[in-house]
Specification:
Order of helices and strands: HHEHEEHEHEHHHEHEHHEHEHH
Organism: Cuniculiplasma divulgatum
Number of strands: 9
CATH topology of the largest domain: Rossmann fold
CATH superfamily of the largest domain: Glucose-6-phosphate isomerase like protein, domain 1
InterPro entries: Glu6P/Mann6P_isomerase_C (IPR019490), SIS_dom (IPR001347), SIS_dom_sf (IPR046348)
Structural class: alpha/beta
Strand order of the largest sheet: 2-1-3-4-5
Bound molecules: 6-O-phosphono-beta-D-fructofuranose
Family: Belongs to the PGI/PMI family.
Distance between the termini: 52 Å
GO molecular function: carbohydrate derivative binding; glucose-6-phosphate isomerase activity; mannose-6-phosphate isomerase activity
Shape: globular
Number of domains: 2
Strand content: 5-15%
Pfam families: bact-PGI_C, SIS
Length: about 325
């Protein structure tokens, strides 16, 4: 087997272990609010999607556009998440929040957001937003869910073991490259949000198109073209993030597997708690998509096209 992995990229991916020890939090109490609104785009916004799926004590609304829903007022807890602090959609919702007298809590490494927010958690700069998922997500978990030191240690040790045993991930990376197929990711609660993270990591790290769906919903629509239109399923390489094993979705998956001519690759998280499994899968996804990128001879960090677009947009007011 040829090892093409480059330490430079892996050191960024592996830095999630330090990020898990980031203990900053807001002094906010969920019980004081009607709901939590998290505004953020791309690699920053995904922290809100992940949090929304884990935190079940209050509704969590994720905004990934310019507009803040009309109903958001002071009874909502508003948190803007932007690694750079300069993303225009996020800043637009911040301005709307301020105009309505809603307090702006922010997680950012700097930029305009750090200047205009009311309450700031500053995170280290110098990473790509998607590499900072720990810094972006931990403040949400620290504030509303509370994570014990023991749990952090356990998660870090699970990730260290995953790094030591990464050769099956590398084999899967090669299989994806050799297949020349489009990754199609399925998952169910509590890790539906991770199928989206997986898709966007394929996009930004590996420069590949990818599709993602919640398995149950997929069984109500996309299953049709996959099985009835001349075997559309053949065009995809199916990856499943296995969530709760007791879910009826597991039964659905078993039935689907018998109907598909294509292989369905199951990724089973290690760990006992939901958080342990969540971080295992996050790390697995990052290692895999970086490895696919390297095997396709891309720079996993390079998203110039997105940055250039942002620069062009910033010139037109
Ligand atoms: O995290 P930020 O700085 O708000 O940026 C949001 C998204 O925009 C990009 O930087 C590119 O436009 C993505 O890579 C990133 O996830």
């Amino acid at each position: 087997m040829i090892f093409l992995a480059e330490d430079k990229f892996y050191s960024q991916v592996y830095s999630i272990k330090e990020q898990i020890n980031f203990t900053e939090k807001f002094s906010l109490e969920a019980r004081n609010f009607k709901a939590i609104v998290i505004s953020g785009m791309g690699g920053s916004g995904v922290s809100g999607r992940i949090f929304a799926e884990i935190f079940q004590e209050l509704p969590v609304i994720v905004v990934d556009s310019y507009k803040l829903p009309k109903y958001v007022d002071r009874s909502y807890c508003f948190i803007a998440v932007s690694y750079s602090g300069n993303t225009e959609e996020t800043l637009s919702t911040v301005k709307e929040a301020k105009a309505r007298g809603v307090r702006v809590n922010a997680i950012t490494s700097g930029g305009e957001l750090s200047k205009i927010c009311d309450n700031l958690i500053k995170i280290p700069a110098g990473l790509q937003p998607r590499e900072a998922i720990g810094y972006l997500l931990m403040p949400l978990l620290n504030t509303f869910a509370g994570i014990q030191t023991e749990e952090r240690k356990k998660i870090i040790s699970i990730l260290e073991n995953l790094e030591k045993e990464r050769s099956p991930i590398w084999q899967l990376a090669q299989k994806i490259v050799d297949s020349r197929k489009i990754p199609y990711i399925l998952s169910w609660e509590p890790f539906t949000s991770l199928s989206y993270r997986f898709k966007t990591q394929f996009n930004e790290n590996s420069k590949l198109f990818a599709l993602n769906h919640n398995l149950s919903e997929q069984n109500h629509n996309e299953l049709v073209p996959q099985l009835m239109n001349g075997g559309m399923a053949e065009k995809f390489i199916f990856l499943v993030l296995e969530g709760d094993y007791s879910s009826r979705c597991k039964v659905r998956l078993d039935i689907m597997e018998n109907k598909f001519s294509s292989e369905i690759i199951r990724i089973k998280p290690k760990g006992e708690t939901q958080l342990e499994k969540l971080f295992y899968l996050l790390h697995y996804i990052d290692i895999l998509t970086v490895e696919v990128s390297l095997r396709l001879s891309f720079d996993p960090e390079d998203v110039k096209v997105l940055e250039n677009l942002k620069a062009e947009l910033s010139k037109i007011k």
